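Form 12-C: Joint structure prediction
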Amino acid sequence: MAIPEVYNISQSPITSHSFNADRTQVAVSLNTNEVQILSRSGADWTPVETLSEHDKTITSIDWAPKSNRIVTASQDRNAYVWQQTPDPLTGRTIWKPTLVLLRINRAATFVRWSPFEDKFAVASGARAIAICSFDPDNNWWVAKQLKKPIRSTVLSVDWHPNNVLLAAGSADMKARVFSAYIKDVDKRPPPSVWGEKLPFNTVSGEYSSPSGGWVHSVGFSPSGDALAFASHDSTISVVYPGGPAIYTIRFNSLPYVTLTWTSEDAIVAAGHDCQPVLFSGGPSGWQAVGSLDDTTAPKSASGARGASTASSPVGRLNSAAFNTFRNADSRGLGSSPGGGSSLATDTELFTVHQNTITTIRQYEGAPGAVTRVSTSGVDGKLVIWNVNTISGLGTKLSGLRVG
Amino acid sequence: MDISFRKIDVDAYDEDVLLETELYDPDPRDPQQVIDDAKAKAASVRTSLAKSDTLGALVTVLDNPPYGSNVEEAKNLTLQTIVTVLNNTKATDIPNVVKSLSSEAQDTLMKYLYKGMGLPGWGDVSGSVLLGWHEKLTEVAGTGCIVRAMTDRRSV
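Section 2 - Result
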């Protein structure tokens, strides 16, 4: 079994990460107002540059593979496009920011380049999505806003391969598909399952899972003919508008907050459960296949002692706090300052990630044939997983049912 | 169940307020039919219980439960019916009953367990019985079931 590549980037949460085209560098934000660019050096990542222009925490980063530009979104309601240019003073190549006129009055929450890299979409707490395109006359990026019928913060977006349609997941419990057609930028898209005539702000679809919940993550399939979304009711749903059919998979553990398609019939999702899980299916139905993580034993040798006490199979009920209280209850073990070392092993989860995974991205392979994915999370780890390595259906996954 | 912890109505100053009722699809049935359905189910549950068919009783009462506003009477009657079923089940039977429920029925049952726990001393709600069911249900349906009970705006 291929072991995932694990990199401990920081002690603080990684809010977002994005690799460059040849994966020699990665842009990360460590829960601050700065972006760090790390360069691969052997088996490690070393900081090479810091991009600082934002005033508040950066929420999302996207590195365009073809045009080699980075776009960042932040709680300061701004987005910047960073481009490598020679410094007029020293001649060194530096990352230079260009302002984006977003015209939003709440935090920007999520940003993604369109497939052709001539537009990007910025989701925000202002119940709007800003679709940004470049204005060469003024040398800045201008935005056109998608507003209706969004009723709450937009948490994630994903572009359709045709560069026009955009999926958005929102805190009003809905996943929607919009047209983000910009007259001077886009050619008329060919008709698809999502519709034929698509002027700006056409709503091609609006979906929610039966038990509701914020839609944390959305994703178009590689062909663009299906849409998947993960919501806070511990479900993921896959929509086939041509069918028309919606498959909702309820699962036993905590909600997923991020997902990506690895092929037309496979999705990897991750979140509060701390492990990436592979789903497979097609227009006739979907089911969980298994975890990419081997969760049968603790990852560090010192954690082995925790195994005997951890018998509850129920999600993260088998967690640090739970075990601490159970030990306090059944054995009178308190969390006294001196007793910290004996409890230290019990706080280790059996997963690689030791806290919520907040971002999962395609790492290697063409769209539709992704072989590896990368994840980062609140534990400050960056992990690269082989999607063909499934460690079997764990006990907690056997109860999954399609409803 | 009173779960409102906000004392100041900040939404009064928002002209584009998102109302609670916009977050879920309304029940297609009209309130009178909802209460009639609840009464019919209560009668059918009594019949099932007389034949000691706990699972049948639970499946009946958990199907299509009343939710939303304006159906308080039906909600209370349904909770009462469910509590009767829960109180009349032997502790050793609970795991099998819970396993036999559909995942949708499991989610609905979890909602009623939490509603019951929010109403201590109401009717013949017994905390220890509810906790016993909660433990067995969580073993089968996992934390995901609890998350769905908390997330779902179609409150029972």
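Section 3 - Comments
The domain at 5-402 of chain A is CATH 2.130.10.10 (Methylamine Dehydrogenase; Chain H). The longest helix of chain A spans residues 320-331.
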